[in-house]
Design goal:
heterodimer, A: five-stranded antiparallel β-sheet, 32% strand, B: alpha+beta, Thiol Ester Dehydrase, Chain A, 6 strands
């Protein structure tokens, strides 16, 4: 799978704001078995200095995975999604995600490489409030496996 | 310094629940037919589910649900989850690499399934004071 290296540095338009719901955080925390009260009980979260329940560290993938579809579905880049496997993932936080957040994603292609017949695509997603305050930066590397 | 080992049991039901909560409905995480058709031994866990379980271990070591400031992994090997009551088990260990003057603790993490590493370069930074 050969990917066009001229896509490096390309930044996509901001996504529509995602509304982080309290029940969505509870649902995600329950699905991963995270029982800490700060994920479920707003009173506990407020005592820790947060406005509402706190999302677990990997929760932003719910938002960024949907957001990066604008890259993997970019017809000019031509990623074959059926051949995609997840390579790397990283979250660097300015602050935790909390219920009530409205989050906007801006995707940038950081790296495009082809090695051993496989394509490697690294995206950086800046997750911010609608007025541009940083919340978390998310890096994701996908591998597009070559034919055969 | 080594941190206490944590183990997480993973069953098919967990994968279905995670698919719903995360919105990742890739059939390799719930259909043996699709998983084997793309060359996998069977249904595998979402990499992000494994990462989330390891994230729980990190938060438990930190003693706070909001302590993680940097967390990254590389997925090296799929976690195959058989269709039975036992499922499989992921074992997570970690060692403290550095404690900074700024109140941050950097840890190196190892996650294994059947004794084989499923993640590499797994690192987290947690805020331990201030």
């Amino acid at each position: 799978m050969s990917l066009d290296p001229s896509f490096v540095g390309r930044t996509y338009p901001p996504t529509a704001p995602y509304q982080v719901g309290r029940e969505k955080i509870r649902e995600f925390a329950t699905a991963i078995g995270a029982t800490e009260p700060a994920h479920h009980d707003p009173t506990v979260a407020r005592a820790l200095g947060h406005p509402d329940v706190v999302a677990p560290p990997t929760f932003p993938v719910v938002i960024t995975m949907a957001a990066t579809r604008q890259i993997v579905e970019d017809p000019d880049l031509g990623v074959d999604y059926s051949r995609v496997v997840h390579g790397d993932q990283r979250f660097v936080y300015t602050r935790p995600v909390v219920a009530g957040d409205e989050l906007v994603c801006v995707n940038t292609i950081e790296e495009v490489r082809t090695r051993g017949g496989h394509g490697f695509l690294t995206t950086r997603t800046e997750v911010t409030t609608p007025d541009g305050q940083s919340v978390v930066t998310v890096w994701s590397k996908i591998v597009v496996r070559g034919e055969g | 310094m080594e941190l206490p080992t944590k183990t997480f049991r993973v069953t098919r039901a967990d994968l279905i629940r995670y698919a719903g909560a995360s919105g990742d409905f890739n059939p390799i995480h719930w259909s043996d037919r699709v998983a084997t058709s793309v060359g996998l031994p069977g249904v595998i866990a979402h990499g992000m589910f494994t990462m989330a379980l390891v994230g729980r271990a990190v938060a438990e070591w930190a003693g706070a649900a909001d302590a993680v400031v940097d967390y990254g992994v590389r997925f090296t090997r799929p976690v195959v989850v058989p269709d039975d009551e036992q499922g499989t088990e992921i074992e997570v260990t970690a060692a403290i690499r550095e404690v900074t003057d700024a109140g941050l603790t950097r840890i190196d993490i190892t996650a294994t399934c059947h004794g084989e590493k499923v993640l590499s370069q797994a690192k987290a930074t947690i805020r331990t004071s201030g």
